[in-house]
Specification:
Length: 781
């Protein structure tokens, strides 16, 4: 797999591993500045209310309080996950005239210690006029629902509280369904989960000398800088976001949050650094969670299982503000349509305002919910027409080179091999649907096997749209790598170091990484569109290539041979066939400075996905290219169900995946294992329970996360469809989000295989399974 390569394709340990395990890694809470104040936020106790007045006078007089801010202290600007002409920003950093969810930010204080800060919060007087509230998205669409925001003016249907709509179609769905041998209509629902990052939201801001320095737990410093600068009325050059280690994110730390804005504003007002750290209860009750979806789909197939047409309707509960709601309903059509050939499709998706906290992307950003629906229904159709689950998937899976309706090309798609190899590894077709194999031991436990398929994109045109990397040769022959990429645990710094090491044949230990600083590193796309290895990785390859070209040109001149006759050795250039004729990188550095007007040998690399596309696709119509890079996977789940208690557990997960070429196999395996764990939590354990907009289980004691005792055996099969060659662009694919999706559907299908009940809603709790068993058997509870 990595023949001829020294660093890329090898299971290299993380370059930041030692710092993390020795405790030297500095997270936001570890950064100390003299005179730092403690920041706290006052939040709404109401899900919906008008704000009649806010009185902070008593709070400002508390000894030790240095600053208090409300909406009156802001510029009156709004922000949003999406800020486009069609979807302008809709959320104020501090509530202005009304609150629309429990926990919405109203005021903030900065004090010398947490006691003074908490006392001050308790003395802020807010007069509310409660308003009717609505929490269910379908109820919120009704004609009599209380208005949270006016419906989007371009949505013509008579629905209320519509934040946005996506609609697209191709082919003739009516004809396809009319001609179909089998047509099914089903409805699937997913539930609310949180991201589960161990490090809570935290920000340190320091206003000094006309510049705001910020350290924050985030997924991309350049987006944070842009939004902070605009809301605070500062030029970009007056805001510097610096690197801090990040203790997990999973999509939950992308957008600008009010605590980040408040930390900056309080620091500007007080003239001292301000640190904001959310409590875990705040994270559960007021911060952004994932995207529950309602999916209604009608699918028609031929007698042989070939897909003919599909009609999809998706409803998203986006919370009190738009958040990423209009993005997830855009993404949902692709997550439904990419893996299989689909001649005809009609799709409409609605993002609906409710009086719940705002929603955010969560690993997969709608893909797990969509694949759960599509893959479950596909199994149901296969059973109706007498096909096994593998056969119907192979009949419809995308082939290499196919072009999607929006113009994207799946290029070297390896989905067919993923399906075949996962089925072969698990002996799927031998074991599926065999009643005699289900019972274990006394017969109380039943085992089943299921399969799911998914596709996920890697890199798209979202601000700042591209990545740049600088590689600098040092005078001792070592290298410095400058990148705006932020490592949130996915191994970004390790991957980039491997690429530079491979291109220049320099040991990993001699490459120093400077990362994620908006002032000292070049721009980067961030860690939220699964494009780091592809976009930033190719930028690093280009930067290292520029250094290599300079080195070989210098060596060619000095040794009077052609560039084509030179060989790159470890930190040296030699003449092919004459290894003693060589110059070290240190010698070439000295020669460059001496003969090329002081040039210290610096290489720049830049990469923008879909370079021929002017902008991102339309969120409303889906028209336009989405990505040039799709990863594919087939995942098989083996489960065991206790028919007395209804408890189900995942025993084994097998992931056959096409990530192109695994740049670091051990990191790839870690990503797969992590996603299997997250899907396991999605399926069986995790649920944010809410009532009237209030979180009922706001702690780790009450929100069940998977532990080591819940883990399943996780196996990976690499389907290699790409190769890495020094000096050439590559098309590696994402591994950080797509594999959390098909495994969820596979678990649902495996439960059906085990006990014969079809689950249409997550989570797959013992209560739900027992209820379905009783309904199936006609037994009374």
């Amino acid at each position: 797999m990595a023949d001829g390569l020294r660093y890329v394709g090898r299971p290299v340990p993380r370059v930041d591993g030692v710092e993390k395990v020795t405790g030297r890694a500095r997270y936001t809470v570890d950064i100390e500045l003299p005179g730092t104040l403690v920041g706290r936020i006052l939040r709404s106790p109401h899900p919906h209310a008008r704000i009649l007045s806010v009185d902070t006078s008593r709070a400002a007089r508390v000894p030790g309080v240095k600053a208090v801010v409300t909406a009156r202290d802001t510029l009156g600007l709004r922000h949003g996950f999406v800020e486009t002409p069609r979807y302008p920003a809709d959320q104020a950093p501090l509530a202005v005239d009304a609150v629309r969810h429990v926990g919405e930010e109203i005021a903030a204080v900065a004090a010398v210690d947490p006691y003074a800060a908490e006392e001050a919060l308790g003395l802020i007087r807010v007069e509310y006029a409660p308003l009717p509230a609505v929490f269910d998205p379908e109820e919120a669409m009704g004609p009599d629902a209380p208005e949270i925001h006016p419906s989007h003016p371009k949505v013509l249907e008579p629905y209320r509280n519509i934040a946005g709509k996506t609609a697209t179609s191709w082919g003739d769905v009516a004809r396809g369904l009319d001609e179909a041998y089998c047509v099914r209509t089903d409805r699937f629902e997913s539930h609310l989960r949180t991201h589960g990052y161990l490090e809570p939201q935290a920000t340190l801001a320091s206003w000094e000398g006309g510049k705001l320095n910020v350290w924050t737990s985030s997924m991309g410093p350049f987006l944070k800088r842009a939004k902070l600068a605009r809301l605070l009325g500062l030029p970009l050059s007056s805001v510097r976001v610096q690197k801090a280690y990040v203790g997990g994110a999973f999509g939950g730390k992308i957008d600008l949050f009010s605590h980040e804005f408040c930390a900056g504003l309080l620091s500007m007002k007080a003239g001292r650094p301000v640190r904001m750290v959310a409590s875990r209860e705040e994270v559960f009750t007021a911060y952004r969670h994932g995207q529950p979806l309602v999916v209604e789909l009608t699918t028609g197939v031929k007698k042989d299982g070939t897909l003919l047409a599909q009609r999809l309707r998706v409803i998203n509960n986006c919370g009190a503000y738009r958040g990423s709601g209009v993005v997830v309903i855009f993404l949902a059509w692709g997550f439904a349509a990419v893996p299989y050939r689909l001649p005809s499709l009609e799709y409409e998706g609605y993002a609906v305002y409710t009086n719940n906290p705002v929603r955010a992307p969560q690993r997969g950003h709608g893909a797990p919910q969509m694949r759960f629906a599509v893959e479950s229904q596909l199994d149901m159709i296969a059973e109706e027409i007498g096909l096994d689950p593998v056969e119907i998937r192979l009949r419809n899976a995308r082939l290499p080179g196919e072009v999607l309706p929006n113009g994207d090309n799946v290029h070297n798609c390896g989905l067919m091999d993923c399906i075949r190899q996962s089925a072969e590894r698990t002996r799927f077709q031998e074991r599926y649907g065999r009643p005699q194999q289900k019972a274990v031991g006394s017969g109380r436990f039943r085992r089943g096997i299921g399969i799911g398929v998914s596709a996920y994109f890697g890199g798209s045109l979202i601000y700042p749209n591209s990545s740049s990397v600088v590689v600098k040769l040092n005078d001792d022959g070592s290298l410095t790598l400058l990148t705006g990429a932020i490592d949130i645990g996915q191994g970004a710094e390790t991957i980039l170091t491997q690429i530079v090491a491979e291109e220049l044949n320099v040991p990993l230990a001699e490459i120093r990484v400077v990362a994620a600083d908006t002032e000292s590193t070049p721009v980067d796309i961030g860690a939220w569109i699964s494009g780091g290895a592809y976009v930033t990785g190719n930028a690093a390859r280009e930067a290292a290539g520029a250094v290599r070209r300079k080195l070989t040109e210098l060596a060619s001149e000095a040794m009077e041979v052609g560039v084509e006759d030179l060989v790159v050795q470890e930190k040296a250039i030699s003449v092919a066939g004459s290894p003693t004729r060589r110059m070290t990188y240190a010698e070439l550095y000295e020669r460059s400075v001496r003969t090329r007007r002081g040039d210290p040998i610096i290489g720049e690399g830049h990469w923008r996905t879909m370079r021929d596309q002017p902008t991102h696709p339309s969120l409303a119509s889906t028209k336009g290219r989405w990505t040039e890079n799709y990863a594919f996977s087939a995942q098989v789940a083996e489960v065991e169900v206790d028919i007395e208690t209804g408890e189900a557990r995942l025993l084994r997960a097998v992931t056959a995946h096409d990530c192109g070429f695994p740049l670091n196999p051990v990191l790839v395996e870690g990503q797969i294992d992590g996603q299997v764990s997250m899907a396991l939590g999605h399926a069986f354990l995790e649920e944010v329970r809410m009532e009237a907009g209030r979180t009922l289980n706001p702690s780790w004691l009450e929100y069940r996360m998977p532990t080591i005792h819940d883990m399943a055996v996780s196996e990976a099969i690499d389907v290699i469809t790409e190769r890495y060659e020094v000096g050439r662009p590559y098309r590696t694919k994402e591994v950080g989000e797509g594999y959390v999706s098909a495994i969820l559907a596979a678990i649902a299908n495996a439960i059906y295989d085990a006990v014969g009940v079809r689950l249409h809603s997550t989570p797959f709790t013992p209560e739900r399974i027992l209820r379905e068993l009783r309904d199936r058997d006609g037994a009374q509870p």
